[in-house]
Specification:
Pfam family, one: FAD_binding_2
Helix content: 25-40%
Cofactor: FAD
Function: Irreversibly catalyzes the reduction of fumarate to succinate.
Number of helices: 14
GO molecular function: FMN binding; fumarate reductase (NADH) activity
Mean pLDDT: 96
Protein name: Fumarate reductase
Structural class: alpha+beta
Distance between the termini: 10 Å
Bound molecules: flavin-adenine dinucleotide, succinic acid
Strand content: 15-25%
Shape: elongated
């Protein structure tokens, strides 16, 4: 029954999961939505997303070339690794696989949802661990995260005053009444305020909480740089009301953070988007390839981290506390052209440099010749790479053009994403039960995005974070709206 005086839906955190939840709560008829954001500006890590959002089968994929894409689920299960190994007990397996099914089955409609709002997602690339090209971005210069976030924000602003974004508002506590979540307490401008209503929690991961949750769960990662905004993790706010956490040790190391030659020791780095490899880029160590660049991030990072880090036996020794490696990302003219929007920005920032092939060292030139033979189909790749993006250097003839220009930048493995988080279910309800136990939803509390755990297991596939934000954010917003319409019960 509809309540005569329904409370607002409260969304905590204005990244993509929060924006998706806020939008769908309004669509589902919530009388009002209050979006509380700790930072001065909305967007979180979502606004920095650079490669795109994965989805299949979609109208933007090239069916004539690759066939209809039915392998997203399989790729995601494979990528989850030991967390979905054959030995994993049945109730846990079913729960994890249910989340993956929802993620992948709703991926095409997530792409449609964003496209219908006006986001261009017409360019599709193949990222690591994906067996087909399915990561969508726009054709222009605006990176996908910024395009999606700004579009959703503009739509939400049209709903004012039903919608209100409150920035510099840090939620410090979830309020409970009769063992249900009944609202939040937040701090703004030195004052502490309470707000009552159903809560959608979308505060992101803890990859930027270097000395807090990251050090607690993965002390071995100390000294690695990060792509994330530095900020405290919020997982204890959820466990304080009984939420269970899962896979907290499962932290993604992205293989390619840029080492800026002008500021090599900075711990927060620009990401060298995976799409650079997807569009054809290769990785070199001392002039030689070391891995199939389109393996999962977990695998590519491991191969690099098994090499000696800088300053350990290689005579580089720049000093500082950072642990970083000396690997080159190289894009031929074809890959450079295909990723022109990204490359223009990285050139401008001084993160990559243009070089003529003839000015590269002998080993690198020999590697390029060998790789061109692989792309031409004259020989098999020793590392098993079979997708080459738009690489075209030497792809036609017997030798490579020494006058061709390539782009080269130094990269290093970097903390990027936290797979672990709050146990939740297919209705985006936060659970007070462990994975595999009979589900105990915490009334009044939903979650979506990187704060949740249990979907990606050991390794998240590229583009699947923006996807989970949209898929589960929309579910959470809708559920919370229905609760608000019933008076928050
Ligand atoms: P966020 O976007 O991080 O938003 C969380 C928000 O909650 C933040 O604004 C934060 O300030 C706020 N918050 C935190 N605590 C509180 C509190 N106590 N009170 C109020 N507000 C709070 N994924 C992809 O799928 N594709 C990509 O191409 C891609 N590229 C990436 C590139 C970079 C450089 C980075 C860092 C990540 C990338 N990712 C990508 C990962 C993806 O962007 C994030 O995992 C995802 O966007 C997280 O979204 P979210 O909404 O869960 O959290
Ligand atoms: C990237 O652009 O490499 C990041 C993509 C992702 O995290 O999914």
């Amino acid at each position: 029954m509809a309540s005569p005086n329904p409370p607002p839906v409260i969304v905590v955190g204005a990244g993509l999961a929060g924006l998706s939840a806020a939008y769908s709560a309004l669509q589902a008829g919530a009388p009002s939505v209050r979006l509380l954001e700790r930072a001065a500006k909305p967007g979180g890590n979502s606004i920095k997303a650079s490669s795109g959002i994965s989805g299949a089968p979609t109208r933007f994929q090239n069916v004539a070339k690759y066939g209809v894409d039915h392998s997203f689920w399989d790729d995601t299960v494979k990528s989850a690794g030991t967390r979905l190994h054959a030995s994993v007990a049945e109730p846990i397996r079913t729960q994890r696989q249910g989340l993956i099914s929802l993620l992948t089955n709703r991926s095409a409609s997530a792409i449609d949802f964003l496209t219908d709002l006006g986001v261009d997602l017409s360019v599709v690339a193949q990222l690591g661990g994906h067996s087909k090209p399915r990561t969508h971005r726009g054709a222009g210069k605006t990176p996908p995260g910024a395009a999606i976030v700004t579009t959703l924000l503009a739509k939400l602003k049209q709903a004012e005053p039903r919608f209100e974004l409150v920035t510099e508002a840090e939620v410090t506590q979830l309020l409970t009444e009769d063992s249900r979540v009944a609202g939040v307490e937040y701090r703004k401008g030195g004052a502490v305020q309470a707000l009552h209503g159903p809560v959608v929690f979308t505060t992101g991961g803890f990859g930027g909480d270097t000395h807090g949750l990251l050090a607690k769960y993965r002390p071995d990662l100390g000294g690695l740089p990060s792509t994330n905004d530095p900020r405290p993790g919020t997982h204890t706010l959820l466990s304080d009301v009984g939420a269970k956490l899962v896979d907290m040790e499962s932290v993604q190391i992205h293989p390619t953070g840029f080492v800026d030659p002008a500021n090599a020791q900075t711990p927060i780095k620009f990401l060298a988007a995976e799409v650079l490899r997807g569009e054809g880029g290769i990785l070199l160590h001392k002039g030689k390839r070391i891995v199939n660049e389109l393996e999962t991030r977990e695998r590519v990072s491991k191969v690099i981290m098994d090499l000696l880090p800088e300053g350990e036996g290689e005579g580089e020794g720049e000093g500082g506390d950072l642990r970083q490696w000396d690997v080159q990302l190289l894009l031929d003219p074809g890959a450079t052209e295909a990723a022109a929007g990204h490359v223009g920005f990285y050139l401008w920032k001084g993160l990559v440099q243009k070089k003529k092939v003839r000015d590269l060292d002998v080993t690198t030139r020999e590697t390029l010749r060998e790789y061109a033979a692989v792309v031409r189909g004259d020989k098999k790749d020793a590392f098993g790479r079979i997708a080459f993006g738009h690489w075209n250097l030497g792809a036609e003839g017997a030798d490579i053009d020494e006058d061709a220009e390539v782009c080269v930048g130094r990269v290093t493995p970097i903390v990027h994403f936290t797979m672990g988080g709050a146990v939740f279910n297919e209705q985006a309800q936060v659970l007070a039960s462990e994975l595999g136990e009979p589900q105990k939803p915490i009334p009044g509390l939903w979650a979506a995005g990187e704060i949740t755990g249990g979907i990606h297991g050991d390794n998240r596939l590229g583009g699947s974070s923006l996807l989970e934000c949209v898929v589960f954010g929309r579910i959470a917003g809708e559920q919370a709206a229905q609760s608000a319409l019933k008076g928050g019960a």
